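Lecture 7 notes: from sequence to structure.

We start with a single chain of 150 residues. Read the sequence below before looking at the structure.
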Amino acid sequence: MSQRSQPYSLDNYSPSESIGYLLKRSGILLSTAVDRGLAQYDMTHAQFSIVFKLLHGHARTAAELARDSMTDTGAMTRMLDRLEEKGIVQRMRSSADRRVVEVELTDKGRQLADDMMRVAVEVLNHHLRGFAPEEIEQFKGFLRRMIANA
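Now the structure, written as tokens:
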């Protein structure tokens, strides 16, 4: 990328207008709104993301959940402890490799997942009000491109 085509320079950089700040701020606002909606289920956005990943097969083990969530294994263990206490997940040692801890949703976890998913959908729809469908697709494309550039 040539110097001229770079979007930021020391002359034009403003922290409150940087893409990083705006992404972080919007993510915090989304997460906070989801937390408020999930309070009725005694769940947090972070806990719901684990439920969602298990429900859709994005992860099967504690290590995969930690990697996918970009968190350390100790923090993931504590979150799984809380979800297990609530009867949402259960952990078991893999029969193929005893070092591996597999995680799955309980019946209660699967039942709550649909209701909690409604909360996430409502929050996203609220935050995306006023956007045209093609703008949302374009926005997602921009975000995917940023992720690919990382």
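The longest helix spans residues 107-127. Keep this in mind for problem set 3.
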